[in-house]
Amino acid sequence: MNTTYTALLDQVNAYHPGKYNATRNYTNGAVTAWSPFISRGFLSPVIVMELLKTKYTKQEWIGFMQQMAWREYFQRVWQAKGSQILQDLKSSQSNVLLNELPIPLKEAGTGIIALDKAIHQLYDKGYMHNHVRMYVSMLHSNIFKAAWLPGAKWMYAHLFDHDPAANFLSWQWVAGTFSSKQYVANQENINKYTNTNQLGTFLDTAYENLYSAIFNVKDELDYSLETKWPDPLDQKFELSSIKILQNIKTKNATAILDFDKINFSNPFCIYNSFNLDPLWHEQEAANRILLLEPDHFNQFPVTEKVLQFVVDLAKSNIPHLQIFVGSFDAFIETIQAEKNKVNSASNIELYFKEHPTAQHYQGIQEQRDWLFPEVSGYFPSFFGYWKKCEKYLK
């Protein structure tokens, strides 16, 4: 995908946020599809809101801004809780019967037309509408009664807008481990927001029956579903990050770190999957390095298609970018060793942006863009966070 920054700004300038709040839950609503670029740190939410504010009234943009703030809220939780976002955060998930990913979801064979179509779209395009993500995660965690983390990792791995905080905390919110109760929806609700009219599915029932739609009160699979789905009903989802990174190196060989293109008199700007800002130090001469760390992708695996999207976006918009596959420490050791060969007396000057995945970087840390930089720390709920943010609305 060779999206340019200029083309994206043209989309922002042409967007009217007035219909967003009323239609965002519908799959044909006035959504933007900018999340892959905001998640990558490529498109600043601050710039987006500044552009929208110059053209529209507060009544028109406030709903859009509030939804943008959800992502920022999740980021603040991640800052505060760290790796705990991969664990039940507030309470334990109840009544877990499956420990891995339900095969009907993995194979897009649930029988719920709108959701199976969305899973195919996830595999093909790296995208799933936000409301449909809630449907899929509630089906996984609350109807199939599968542990939420394997499902969250599966979805994360395929999303172009993969964001650990937003993804894993949203799954926890649905599963009831980061909210007061589990989220469920029946077929009528799904039909309404996905513009379908499917009837007769296992979700085509009253809400009080949903928790026994697949497994009965004895935790046994409903007899009508036994012939449709395999036994066991779940399967481990795994990716080989080592193989994927090796393939990325091979496919992008011309962009892999070349010391003949390094000028040790210039600073190093370190980019990663969450900082692809094309405006960052753009007027300065710098060595621009996209760092792809195996340890990060072992913890948060993504498919090769997703990682290639990240690389393509970076290569298309950040001039003279080079790629280093390895740890930050290995990068520093490699650069230092090469620098010693050329007898360069200057110190290595290195810049990076603050992010939970960059806490081990060393150098000059710079802040990323926040809609509400004044509001930090942990808030147990979004609404407590938003109430504080409202004080700074302009």
Written account of the structure:
- The structure is a single chain.
- With 394 residues, the chain is of the alpha/beta class.
- It is 42% helix and 6% strand.
- It has 16 helices and seven strands.
- The protein has helices at 5-14, 20-23, 35-39, 45-53, 58-81, 103-106, 113-125, 130-143, 148-158, 164-175, 187-194, 241-251, 294-299, 304-317, 328-341, 382-389; strands at 101-102, 234-235, 268-271, 287-292, 322-325, 350-353, 364-366.
- Strands 5-4-3-6-7 form a five-stranded parallel sheet. Strands 1-2 form a two-stranded antiparallel sheet.
- The relative contact order is 0.13.
- The mean pLDDT is 96.
- Rough outline: globular
Major β-sheet profile: 5 strands, parallel
Oligomer: single chain
Structural class: alpha/beta
Number of strands: 7
Strands of the widest sheet, in order across it, are: 5-4-3-6-7
Summarize the structure.
With 394 residues, the protein is α/β, with parallel strands linked by helices. It has helices at residues 5-14, 20-23, 35-39, 45-53, 58-81, 103-106, 113-125, 130-143, 148-158, 164-175, 187-194, 241-251, 294-299, 304-317, 328-341, 382-389, and strands at residues 101-102, 234-235, 268-271, 287-292, 322-325, 350-353, 364-366. It is built from 16 helices and 7 strands.
